[in-house]
Amino acid sequence: MHRKQSLLIAEALVLAVFLGEGACDSICPNGITYITASSGRLKYPTSGNYGANEIKCWKIEVTDTYQGIRFQYNSYDIESCKDCECDSLKVSNTYNDLDQQLGKTCGRSSYNYLYEYLGHWSDGNFQRVQGSIAYIRFVSDDTEHYKGFSLAFTALSDSGGVKNYLNAPEDETITFDTQKFGSQNYPTNSEEEWYLIVPVGRQVQIDFDTFDLEDSKDCRNDYVELREAISEDSDGEFFEGDTGPILTKRLCGKTKPGSIKSKGSIVWVNFKSDSNSTTVYKGFKASFKAGLY
């Protein structure tokens, strides 16, 4: 296998297949590599420097229940020139836009710059695409060649419900549940978010006591989802959950999930119900505490 073949690492199921879809046009004459996953990583090339006169294309597709795709660049080393006419990288939700000038990027940013200077609280190394499909196109010319790029992608969730911030100190268990739990079924068109916080250096352990939601394919109707929360500033005082690493796929139905443990100290839980007026489900009741690694 050629050492410059792209490396695809996915936290969920990844289907990476080379197809000749673009073989007859100038945008992607060498075909497209297809990736289907809710999150994953893409690095090109896997080692060394990229070659001369290359055109590489990828299509990333997430389930259409998500609102978009978020990209985070871990390394970015592409020859820089005016209007990125030499080497370039472009991300778009439209295939036919890939060879257009607008949106092309190039330049060189070291690991230390991306992580220590920009940090996780800056949008400098992030990019978002609306919808469930994103196309990526990399182009090089016949002059200077560098190390290329690596990125991580994550499907974006729909958020906007009432926010709750719950803190579990050492040796304390905190409960949370859907609206009206224990007295009524949960309402239609309901949205609610919880940020579950434990001391730094501990992991969040979540246990569901009761779980009773409407079942549907891909949990499109009513669901609960859990993600790691991401710090949005250098002090760690502001964070968001809808773009964080996915802890579980969407949950629905009547099967109670097993214990869920995070890697970090903050977890985002998102509950959403649709407009089905015949909702006859109780919802969920859960608890969390500070767990040990």
Automatic annotation (TrEMBL):
CDD domains from the UniProt entry: CUB (cd00041)
Signal peptide bounds: 1-24
Residue stretches in coiled coil: none
Keywords, comma-separated and alphabetical: Disulfide bond, Repeat, Signal
Any Pfam family: CUB
Residues in CUB domain copies: 28-156, 159-291
PANTHER family associated with the record: OVOCHYMASE-RELATED
Protein name: CUB domain-containing protein
Organism of derivation: Pocillopora meandrina
